[in-house]
Design brief:
Layout lengths: L22 H10 L5 H4 L28 H10 L4 E10 L23 E7 L18 E7 L2 E7 H8 L3 E9 L2 E9 L7 H6 L4
Antiparallel strand pairs: 1-4, 1-6, 2-3, 2-5, 3-4, 5-6
Length: about 200
């Protein structure tokens, strides 16, 4: 998210920085960097600290403190099995020409879609042998969180993110639109600031 500075009212920062001019710019900035905020992203009584990337952002101390869920949080940290994380996504109506290599590019023509919408993964026919006994639709993948201009955040199973990256799965959800039920393709994109070790080891489990 960059640096935070305290300056007197009316004064300009003494260093060069990109200042978000309005709430929309700030929201886009944090979404593109994979930073959750507020009840749309961190749901009360449901959100797990590591799912919300608090460990990667320095928001957890595993040596001290006392809070609800501390034992589970510490145990998860030491076992190293984190199945879901909030990750930036790009949204596009199906069929979409976009690929997993596509950049996260805001598109003001795309409306804001309802949060807490369930996202499903489906196995591509080209990735499954004819005699494969693997299910066509794996178990629940995740949930759409805050989004604007065709980019957003989603809580996704990391194993399914890997499947999309390998070209084996496609993520999507259905939403009623002007033309009836519309299918939206979800393309996850890992934040560049995630530690390399977490990009690999935290996908296990």
């Amino acid at each position: 998210m960059g640096d935070r500075l305290l300056v007197r009212a009316g004064d300009k920062p003494g260093v060069h920085c990109d200042v978000a001019q309005d709430e929309t710019q700030f929201t886009l900035h944090r979404i593109l960097h994979g930073v959750p905020e507020g009840i749309d992203d961190i749901v009360s009584q449901q959100a797990f600290p590591m799912d919300s990337n608090m460990d990667l952002m320095g928001g957890l101390d595993f040596r001290k403190g006392c809070y609800v869920g501390q034992e589970l949080t510490v145990r998860t940290y030491h076992t190293g099995v984190i199945r879901k994380r909030i990750i930036p996504i790009s949204l596009a109506l199906a069929p979409s020409p976009k690929t997993i290599q596509s950049r996260l590019e805001p598109d003001s023509s795309i409306p804001t879609l309802p949060t807490q919408t369930s996202i499903q993964a489906e196995r591509l026919a080209s990735s499954s042998p004819a005699n494969s006994d693997r299910p066509t639709r794996p178990r629940g993948t995740g949930t759409l969180l805050s989004n604007i201009h065709g980019v957003g955040l989603a809580l996704l199973r990391l194993e399914h993110v890997e499947g999309v990256e390998r070209g084996e799965l496609v993520m999507s959800f259905a939403q009623m639109g002007d033309r009836g039920s519309e299918s939206w393709i979800v393309l996850p994109k890992r934040p560049t600031w995630w530690p390399v070790a977490d990009n690999s080891s935290l996908q296990q489990g």
